[in-house]
Amino acid sequence: MKVLVLNTGSSSIKYQLFLSDNWHVLAHGMLARIGETESELKFNWTDASGASQSRHAQLSIPTHQAGLDLLIADLREHELLTDVNELAAIGHRVVHGGAYFNRPVVIDDAVIAAIEQMVALAPLHNPGHLVGIRVAQHLFPTVPAVAVFDTAFHQTMLPIAYRYAIPEFLYTEHQIRRYGFHGTSHHYVAKCAALMLGKPLAQCNLITLHLGNGASACAIQGGQCIDTSMGLTPLEGLVMGTRSGDLDPAVVIYLMKNIGLDATAVDQMLNRQSGLLGICGVNDMREIESRAAAGDAQAELAIGMTTHRLKKYIGAYYAELEQVDALVFTGGIGENATGIRHRTCAGLENLGIILDDAANTARELNGARCISTAASPVQVLVIPTNEELEIAQQALAAVSINV
Ligand code: ADP
Predict the structure, then answer these.
(1) What's 23's domain CATH number?
(2) Of all protein residues, whose CA lies closest to atom 4 belonging to ligand 1?
């Protein structure tokens, strides 16, 4: 059987088609700028001889339905999906499941209503997911669809970790609390880490760092999330590509009262013009590292602030966990930026985090690997994340449970 994973945004659809026997990726790609004058199609697949092929086109994709029609046509043409009933499940990535969902669920009207209710908390994400879910329901009416939530893994947090110290009614009446995001990635790398550590996930204490354009840290005790750095929205926590992460809430008041920004402008500034971009003018870590190496003081500051914030979270989560088996780096920066890993771990030797510099920088190494010394009490692991695979596997598992 096959499993299709869809990550639908307001103007894009990213997808992967898996063969569930061996989780081989049959096709992956994206449909971008849907509804604009010129849209984009990227379709990558493996042909019958096992060779990788790709098709890239600029064309008109007026609606999400037109986009999925194109995808189905491509899959049919290359005999990757001759009948939609070859699909055992469709897994939809959903960013915000609020407190409703602590696991993936088969989508029905009640699930759609709950995702709708969460639109206020994820206005940039949940509306796009809902369009994707409805269009896929229309095109694949007989295939079970599963929602896999970025927030679900973090639902094991206790109130001491997820509550903000603000008036009670803001929680009880308005659901304002920490939810956390990137849960699919944190869960996936935690499972890989358990395999590498050679013990059940339920016995593992981990600090996982998902460092991409968005970035978050997670404290995992006995395989369950006990704290995470993102909050009500993905704005809180680490220094990110364009998001500020933690700041004194009074900064928002100051921006509104003294600089005259309205709520939309503050939102834009903290989510899109801050973080690495706000500090040094670019948000691509590769460019920032090369600028810093060439002596650019702002790029150096951006790296210093990033790793300083990471150390703060590692220290805090170490204290919460009391004992840590492994520190895990993942995401584009976590998997590739050797300098960020080095500076994050430097000075943490007394916490039992001892990086092996040769293993950290070894160019020939990729894939999941240990980059701490043999004597390091806490293993430092680099584990490439694979959120699509995790969504596909969780979707199939949810459908199997429901059979
Ligand atoms: P997204 O959150 O958009 O999925 P990614 O996980 O792809 O982001 O991470 C993107 C970040 O990873 C960018 O800042 C990019 O510069 C950084 N990155 C990717 N490859 C490298 C590399 N070889 N060295 C340093 N940074 C890298």
Answers:
(1) 3.30.420.40
(2) 212
Q: Which atom of ligand 1 is nearest to the CA of 213?
A: 2
pLDDT tens digits, 374-399: 999 999 999 999 999 999 999 999 99
> What is the strand order of the sheet 52-59 is part of?
52-59, 39-46, 24-32, 13-19, 2-8, 87-94, 145-149, 105-106
The DSSP symbol for 129 reads H
Q: Which two tokens stand for residue 229?
A: 């750095």
How far does the centroid of ligand 1 lie from the alpha carbon of residue 363, in Å?
16
- State the pTM of this model: 0.94
* Helix orientation angle between 285-293 and 297-321, rounded to the nearest 10 degrees: 120
At 297 the three-state DSSP class reads helix
Please, which residues have CB within 8 angstroms of residue 318's CB and are 6 or more apart in sequence? 207, 324, 351
- Domain range enclosing 284: 198-387
Quick one: 214 and 137 in the same domain?
Answer: no
DSSP strand pairing (379-382 vs 326-330):
parallel
Instruction: Please give the distance, rounded to the nearest whole angstrom, from the Cα atom of residue 42 to the centre of ligand 1.
Output: 20
pLDDT tens track for 20-40 = 999 999 999 999 999 999 999
Residue that has been written with the tokens 């909050």 in this structure: 231
> Domain check: are 206 and 123 in the same one?
no
